[in-house]
């Protein structure tokens, strides 16, 4: 990758700001809905098995993504190849495409 291939810094900053705005709006909307209808969302969990190569690196990346989506992640011990992670968060977050797609995209890129 050369400097000419790097994305324009202004575009990157604008897209990052828009992503942060949308994430904040979604979080506020979920909080308002949960306040009026508490049964709409509850804590949940999800386990993901990550195959080699680079399973530990991929697990670290996915834990970072989980944190950005207001979830907590634990890397579980595993005797065989690969890595297993356990993600904790609210059900709506764990089941939404906005949460699942970054995992798939990130894993496909590695």
If you had to describe this structure to a student in words, what would you say it looks like?
The chain is of the alpha+beta class and 110 residues long. It folds into two domains: 1-40; 42-110, Ribosomal Protein S8, Chain: A, domain 1, CATH 3.30.1370. 55% of the residues lie in helices and 19% in strands. It contains four helices and three strands. The protein has helices at residues 9-36, 55-68, 91-95, 97-109, and strands spanning 43-50, 72-76, 83-90. Strands 1-3-2 form a three-stranded antiparallel sheet. A hairpin with a 6-residue loop joins strand 2 and strand 3 (83-90). Helix 2 runs antiparallel to helix 4. The protein starts with 8 loop residues before the first helix and ends with a helix. Residues 1-5 have low confidence and may be disordered.
């Amino acid at each position: 990758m050369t400097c000419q291939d790097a994305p324009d810094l202004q575009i990157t900053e604008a897209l990052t700001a828009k992503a942060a705005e949308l994430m904040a709006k979604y979080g506020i909307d979920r909080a308002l809905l949960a306040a009026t209808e508490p049964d709409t969302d509850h804590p949940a969990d999800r386990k993901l098995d990550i195959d080699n190569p680079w399973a530990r690196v991929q697990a670290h990346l996915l834990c970072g993504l989980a944190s950005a989506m207001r979830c907590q992640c634990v890397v579980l011990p595993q005797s065989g190849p690969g890595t297993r992670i356990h993600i904790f968060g609210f059900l709506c977050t764990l089941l939404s495409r906005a949460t699942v797609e970054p995992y798939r995209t990130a894993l496909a890129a590695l």
